[in-house]
């Protein structure tokens, strides 16, 4: 028969709640009791049962992670970061793929509530009021990564999307391009869509290139949609010589479209991406792009959830991390 | 106060174990009792608490999934399949990234044991005796996906790797190539490495091309390693006109290498991949490849775990699914 917390308490001659405190907040237990408990745990080879532990402490030592699209390569870096932080902090990680489906996401919040996960990292999706109400109602602490909310005071970690987009477009302008297009995220269902568009507009405006601001088409997260958007963009504005794509998937879709039309990248058209996915370095041509620190974003988000879970609040509510321009082969001077 | 299973039993006038059976094996409960229990659940708006449920039924309604490398795009299709099956079957899914690290994997088995997950899907890694012993010792049912074991009787779902590799190489031969190379998985740490090599050898032998069998270099799962392996292969055998790559990542690494050396694919060298990742259709050139039904493999693996969990055994121990040659643009006639 497996030893229980009761057996440990009995052997150590202390109460069950003391054993619990030794495991969860050892500093609150006097040294003499603490060492007796630790000795009993070792002698009995006691392994806490997470169900029983859940009932006693209302902690499951599990974090949940919502990913909007597990097939989108962007999230793999975030997942690694979240998971490595979980390993360091002693949590198991339960990853769920929501497919940006409201009903599925709401059902997962119920599942996480039922499993009493200690906290949730919510990756790069919009926070709709239904989500906020359900998450708040469930009293599970949560943190946004690659996302933010100005409507609610939810802790978040992301880059400065507007500044990053500005840097990308400024780079194209510095290469001598004046006829610049953009393939952006639909604004209705994307948190990064509006600020990246603002960065595009700001760079063009500052440089007196207002005439090219209207050359924007939108796509929804997938390569294939960007391929179609590039088709529309070039059919309408064949004079374009450079394109700012708000995702590396979009850059690949755009280059794939141009290649199918025998338009050479970067000889005839320059394409800059966003994200710096692993694949951007294996693409033909290798993508010039804006790097997001996806691993660090994920790692920091998990740390912030831990901060919330253990202290009830966070030091910095909305945190920004640095982006970086990575120059490879998909852009050249006009 | 939230209603408990006790409240439901009381209102329905049945025992707690009857309520449990209504929720988990309704066919075993007579209709009259079953409808009383369902009415009580509805009236009390009873939501089972997974911790309490775990203690009572020793079931957590959670499956675990081990992924060897969450950044490898190959796994996203498997994850989606496993997860969609979990949704259908009523399980939450806990995904863990092992990085092919033995100690981490063993620690995760402990974590899953502690959380009493009902079953585990173990994706495409070798089953070392330590894993098998720990998993068997923990009495968690488990199923292999994109992997198998002949040493142990573990249920598995995969494609026929040898036949798939044979088809890839046969295709290159039918295009007129006689100087064929291969970039394979290291045999020590890959379950698919040896059978894919055997398929390569079989196709060449059948067609009288034994002289080209030795043209093989190995890489370990990542694009960058395949880039280096392609460098070795072409330095040693510059006469090669076609390459069989055992993964689309390897095909991209190889094409990236050739492109950096100004060798055109497919004009000068044909490259065939394996997997049919989403990215294979966005690559330049679009990859000709062997498609694996990754979504179906994942879905079926989760169904098999469920079969094991609910019946204690599986109908078919080692299951094979079909592969398919997808002809795109990275190969052409010699």
Automatic annotation (TrEMBL), chains A, B:
<dbReference type="Pfam" id="PF00356">
    <property type="entry name" value="LacI"/>
</dbReference>
<dbReference type="GO" id="GO:0003700">
    <property type="term" value="F:DNA-binding transcription factor activity"/>
</dbReference>
<keyword id="KW-0805">Transcription regulation</keyword>
<dbReference type="InterPro" id="IPR000843">
    <property type="entry name" value="HTH_LacI"/>
</dbReference>
<dbReference type="InterPro" id="IPR010982">
    <property type="entry name" value="Lambda_DNA-bd_dom_sf"/>
</dbReference>
<keyword id="KW-0238">DNA-binding</keyword>
<dbReference type="Pfam" id="PF00532">
    <property type="entry name" value="Peripla_BP_1"/>
</dbReference>
<protein>
    <submittedName>
        <fullName>LacI family transcriptional regulator</fullName>
    </submittedName>
</protein>
<dbReference type="GO" id="GO:0000976">
    <property type="term" value="F:transcription cis-regulatory region binding"/>
</dbReference>
<keyword id="KW-0804">Transcription</keyword>
<dbReference type="InterPro" id="IPR001761">
    <property type="entry name" value="Peripla_BP/Lac1_sug-bd_dom"/>
</dbReference>
<feature type="domain" description="HTH lacI-type">
    <location>
        <begin position="3"/>
        <end position="57"/>
    </location>
</feature>
<dbReference type="InterPro" id="IPR028082">
    <property type="entry name" value="Peripla_BP_I"/>
</dbReference>
């Amino acid at each position: 028969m497996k030893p229980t917390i009761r057996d440990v308490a009995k052997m150590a001659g202390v109460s069950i709640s003391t054993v619990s405190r030794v495991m969860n907040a050892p500093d609150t237990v006097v040294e003499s009791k603490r060492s007796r408990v630790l000795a009993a745990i070792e002698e009995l080879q006691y392994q806490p049962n997470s169900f029983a532990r859940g009932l006693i402490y209302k902690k499951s030592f599990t974090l949940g992670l919502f990913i909007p699209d597990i097939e989108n390569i962007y999230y793999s870096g975030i997942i690694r970061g979240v998971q490595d932080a979980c390993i360091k902090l002693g949590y198991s990680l339960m990853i769920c793929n929501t497919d940006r489906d409201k009903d599925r996401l709401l059902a997962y919040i119920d599942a996480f509530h039922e499993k009493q996960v200690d906290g949730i990292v919510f990756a790069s999706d919009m926070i709709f009021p239904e989500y906020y109400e359900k998450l708040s109602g469930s009293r599970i602490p949560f943190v946004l990564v690659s996302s933010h909310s100005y409507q609610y005071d939810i802790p978040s970690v992301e880059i400065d999307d507007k500044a990053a987009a500005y840097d990308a477009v400024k780079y194209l302008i510095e290469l001598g391009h004046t006829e610049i297009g953009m393939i952006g995220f639909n604004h209705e269902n994307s948190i990064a869509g509006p600020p990246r568009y603002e960065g595009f507009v700001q760079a063009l405006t500052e440089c007196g290139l207002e005439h090219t601001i209207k050359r924007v088409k939108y796509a929804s997260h997938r390569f294939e949609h960007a391929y179609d958007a590039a088709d529309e963009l070039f059919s309408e504005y064949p004079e374009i010589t450079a394109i700012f794509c708000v995702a590396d998937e979009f850059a690949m879709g755009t280059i794939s479209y141009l290649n199918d039309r025998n338009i050479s990248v970067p000889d005839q058209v320059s394409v800059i991406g966003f994200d710096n996915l692993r694949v951007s370095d294996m693409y033909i041509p290798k993508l010039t792009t804006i790097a997001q620190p996806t691993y660090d974003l994920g790692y920091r988000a998990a740390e912030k959830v831990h901060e919330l879970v253990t202290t009830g609040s966070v030091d910095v509510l909305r945190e920004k991390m640095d982006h970086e321009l990575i120059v490879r082969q998909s852009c050249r001077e006009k």
